[in-house]
Amino acid sequence: MKKENKLVVKLLDALAAKHSHMSFLYGYDESLNQHIIEVAPTESYENEQYLLDEANATAEFLSNFPHQGILFISNDPYLKVAEPIYNSAANVRKVKLKRSASLGIFQGNSGKGLAK
User: Fold this and answer.
1) Is there a contact between 101 and 89 (Cβ–Cβ < 8 Å)?
2) Where on the phi/psi map is residue 43: left (φ > 0), alpha (ψ -120 to 50), or beta?
């Protein structure tokens, strides 16, 4: 994973931790040189505190990678993340499964749908 992808994932992990009721699906469009993040639910996407946190994440990304773009979207019929690099919902499930496995509760680990 490239440095810029790692930074986006780090920023999304922080957003997901602070806004645990939200989910983030992240992909990259090479033709646009644009990092695209789908945010759900739409109602939370419009929350003032979330918007401030998103603006701070965007500023941090652009200060490190000024020649690339980052775009947060919600419920956009034209832009979708087709091949996600990161899915905060899957990442949360992965952490929960690991905890359960350590307690001997979780029996299998198919890895389906988990973030890479």
Assistant:
1) no
2) alpha
Tokens found for residue 86: 């990161």
CB 81 within 8 A of CB 25: yes
Condensed to tens digits (0 to 9), the pLDDT of residues 66-105 reads 999 999 998 877 778 888 999 988 764 333 333 334 343 3
Any domain includes 94: no
Which residue type, as a one-letter code, is found at position 111?
G
Alpha carbon distance 55, 111 (integer Å): 33
In a domain, 70, yes or no: yes
Considering the domain boundaries, does residue 15 fall inside one?
Answer: yes
Look up the domain containing 79 and give its range: 3-88
Is pLDDT at 13 greater than 50 in this prediction?
yes
Number of domains in the chain: 1
Tell me the pLDDT tens digit for each residue of 105-114. Answer: 333 333 433 3
d(CA 46, CA 107): 40
User: What count of residues does the chain have?
Assistant: 116
* Within a domain: 43: yes
Q: What are phi and psi of 103, to 5 degrees?
A: -90, 0
